[in-house]
Predict the structure.
Amino acid sequence: MEKAYIDRILSYTNEKVVFYKENTISKNQVEIQTKIITASKEIPITYRTILVNGTWKVYDVVIENVSLVMNYRTQFNEILAKIHPNNCLRSCEKK
């Protein structure tokens, strides 16, 4: 997930990032809503964070209403629907 997110962010240049809202989900979960403002549009990005051992960690990033975690989960479920989980694990171990 980190590589996919970093690649996408690195493609932006000279854009403005605006932090505009923080939603407390629970005592250890917060969503931070931001926008990347380009010359032609505003791109909403929400960071889903969780407090772990006193440090806030990002566990999901939602870009233009698409969750990276849900996207990967959907792709993984599609793979598991086609092949046995043991074969999937063997394939992952080889990589």
Summary: Helices lie at 2-10, 68-82, 85-94. Strands lie at 16-26, 29-37, 42-52, 55-63, 66-67. The chain has a mean pLDDT of 82.
